Amino acid sequence: xxxxxxxxxxxxxxxxxxxxxxxxxxxxxxxxxxxxxxxxxxxxxxxxxxxxxxxxxxxxxxxxxxxxxxxxxxxxxxxxxxxxxxxxxxxxxxxxxxxxxxxxxxxxxxxxxxxxxxxxxxxxxxxxxxxxxxxxxxxxxxxxxxxxxxxxxxxxxxxxxxxxxxxxxxxxxxxxxxxxxxxxxxxxxxxxxxxxxxxxxxxxxxxxxxxxxxxxxxxxxxxxxxxxxxxxxxxxxxxxxxxxxxxxxxxxxxxxxxxxxxxxxxxxxxxxxxxxxxxxxxxxxxxxxxxxxxxxxxxxxxxxxxxxxxxxxxxxxxxxxxxxxxxxxxxxxxxxxxxxxxxxxxxxxxxxxxxxxxxxxxxxxxxxxxxxxxxxxxxxxxxxxxxxxxxxxxxxxxxxxxxxxxxxxxxxxxxxxxxxxxxxxxxxxxxxxxxxxxxxxxxxxxxxxxxxxxxxxxxxxxxxxxxxxxxxxxxxxxxxxxxxxxxxxxxxxxxxxxxxxxxxxxxxxxxxxxxxxxxxxxxxxxxxxxxxxxxxxxxxxxxxxxxxxxxxxxxxxxxxxxxxxxxxxxxxxxxxxxxxxxxxxxxxxxxxxxxxxxxxxxxxxxxxxxxxxxxxxxxxxxxxxxxxxxxxxxxxxxxxxxxxxxxxxxxxxxxxxxxxxxxxxxxxxxxxxxxxxxxxxxxxx
Length: 685
Description:
Mean pLDDT: 84
Shape: rod-shaped
Oligomer: single chain
Low-confidence stretches: 675-685
């Protein structure tokens, strides 16, 4: 018995201790039974009143969800950290809720389940001073239910979650190299004709209250958000990041705006207006009277924070005028200008810089920031330009890309092709005249050069046959140069040179010419061979001459020696002749003297002999004396006076015939006696 009663008695003594331990462990629940509520330091207590038995505020007013005056239901007031009394568990439900903590990189988007209804057309509830939604009573005094325009900044907040639901959203971060474009979901409606909301000072859309109070308009906003972090309510503003506008070097930006006044009739682009910081301040642009549409002003190289909802930027190359060229500007915008060409040029008008029309001042070589939609720059080469009328051949400038070989017909009915190159030059100051008249260099080629040159050669070919055209090519070229230069001068274009290229005559005529040429070449070949033979002969002669050169030299030396010997002989003979002359002169003088003496002697002898003869003649007759002298002379000469053979007449019994003479001669020869002619011969009767 005692054994059984001891454990029971011991149990009764330990029961209070066990209850004390349980009470200590579950003290909160224990205290809750007595109307005590302990709220931790990091929490609040939300209260729901289950019933009200008596009093004026037993039920909530119609449309209300949260009680302000102790009505049954969700209570506006919360329990702060600490100990609270009188909250009997059968009448009050207390829920411990952690503080609403918003991290440093986030914001809290608040939506209220109670409050005044939103006005018609509104999307977000207006701002109410309620200590960042920690004062529910202040909010319910005038706050509107639904999504709130104000946000909860980073921190820990005692917000009644029975009235407010808080959704964490990351802060709006605009990355480097980008901007944020904003679209508002609430605000005033846009005015008629407007496409973008006007600018309102609202701390880069972080102050929703200022935006709404300042008359902010719903839809795309003019202002943009630069790089950085922002507490922007995504329920009110939708932010989209877009790249900044970068205009690279050697580029320009062409701007087209979507907001502003309408363009005047007849204009294609808005004039430049001041004060809008190169389209980065849309509101200033609109306030200054800027017009929507294409803008005359361009953007140079750089970075711009331009709202693409307000203006679009097209990046194009700068206008480059190459070396040896000028740029002629054709302006489509500006005030109407006065023609400055004068009376000498009536084909088109030219105006001053900045006026609408063809500018009389040209752009020299360089790069220019020109809006190619409002101004066209026609590049005109000032150096010599070569144009080829030859199929498949074109220069780098491509002005002759559509030109082809000229087909002409000769006077003798043949059709042949002709390649021509024309070199032209346009002076710098005449370039605007060319553009004002034709609009472009391509038009100059197609409207003037192509028909002028083509027709000239067609007409020239009809006045000549093919062979003559080929033979007088140089003359045709000179005539073409003069005629074309005269024709182009009227268009302010200088013709430098006209060159006739390849001439392709008909095939049948070409064969004839080829055969003729081959024959001529064969003739030339034969002539060349003959000349070669002649040269060969000369070579042989030269070779033989070289071989005998030693003998020639030896002979030349001998000739020289002979010449020297002859000269010496001449000198010797000359000396001897002079000596003989002197001797002869002396001898002649002696002879003369001797002759004179001899003559005197002979004269004396002759006179004596003559005297003897006269005396002999005197002693006989003169005829007899002569006979005697002849006989003496013949005797002295050995002439026989009596013949050895006597030829006489042919009398009978007498000698003297021809036979007798021959026999007598033969006998004489045999005897060796010389035949002596007789003084007299008998002549046959």
